[in-house]
Specification:
Elements: H1 2-22, H2 27-108
Protein name: Gas vesicle protein
Length: 115
């Protein structure tokens, strides 16, 4: 692996030197191109930093929105469910008692009673 990376580095340096030495551009043209490249790179880096900042702000806004709307809604839903359970409890108990009576009646039927 070390031989490969060393060869890659030497090949990259040799290729760069060959391109610089055989290029028909002047030194000033190359300097301008390199300066433009780094200017573009700096601008792109700034754009990425700005995008990351905007993303962080959007995440913060989402968190605040969730805290302001979602949590109260969950509390309201929970309270409504608890109230419904409380109101339905006597009805459910009555239904369960009737089902028990029906089950007892069905279980008490003997095969002779069905004829």
């Amino acid at each position: 692996m070390a031989k490969f990376s060393t060869g890659l580095l030497i090949g990259g340096i040799a290729g760069t030197l060959y391109a610089l030495l055989t290029s028909k551009k002047t030194g000033q043209q190359r300097q301008r191109e390199v300066a433009n490249y780094f200017t573009d790179l700096t601008q792109a880096t700034g754009d990425v930093q700005a995008a990351v900042g905007e993303f962080a702000q959007a995440m913060n806004n989402l968190k605040q929105e969730m805290n302001q709307t979602l949590q109260p809604a969950i509390k309201d839903i929970t309270a409504s469910v608890e109230e419904a359970e409380f109101e339905m409890s006597p009805r459910v108990d009555a239904i369960n008692k009737r089902v028990e009576v029906i089950n007892d009646a069905v279980n008490s039927i003997t095969p002779d009673d069905t004829k």
